[in-house]
Amino acid sequence: xxxxxxxxxxxxxxxxxxxxxxxxxxxxxxxxxxxxxxxxxxxxxxxxxxxxxxxxxxxxxxxxxxxxxxxxxxxxxxxxxxxxxxxxxxxxxxxxxxxxxxxxxxxxxxxxxxxxxxxxxxxxxxxxxxxxxxxxxxxxxxxxxxxxxxxxxxxxxxxxxxxxxxxxxxxxxxxxxxxxxxxxxxxxxxxxxxxxxxxxxxxxxxxxxxxxxxxxxxxxxxxxxxxxxxxxxxxxxxxxxxxxx
Length: 245
Prior knowledge:
By secondary structure, this protein is an alpha/beta fold. The radius of gyration is 16 Å and the shape is globular. The chain is built from 5 helices and 15 strands.
């Protein structure tokens, strides 16, 4: 299985423009033979909590239909991030598109204290299946909480798909934590981070891939846009830079 994580610079608050940008990365992932492609936290809007309520939408939003088309046509699982509406408020969501199946949604279950004024937490874990593999999405802060990784490991997950928007200090914590997650639970860890301004900080990129033994295979820089890809069969990784207007 080939898992691709996209590092991109979102266009703040412009869902339509970001959809175009996402699809260009998806086409590149398809050309590289990816089975799964996923994006950073709130990738379709940028990480902008103060804008989230005005940008929030349903997972069934028709603007997202083209991702299902791409998934069906190319037989690839696609995960995109955006604020989603629920009965109790707005969630930090991801919508996942599986070939020839109903789209599925996931919402961050463990929020950072700074997020409480803007978001409500999700209440269930999503597990994706690809061939004989089980994959679990995790979104930023919760992926740094040992309980989250332990929960998905108990569900038989072998690949941890982490979508983040991290400052330099947050990235330092991540780089210490994710190898331990991989080693302890024998899971591949693949992290997609954004680059550029986010809320009141700068997201520093450095998207990365770890083996199920906790070895860092590859890490991007803090400025470029592109794809990091893990081949789980060979536990090798590759980097593909791509600039999308």
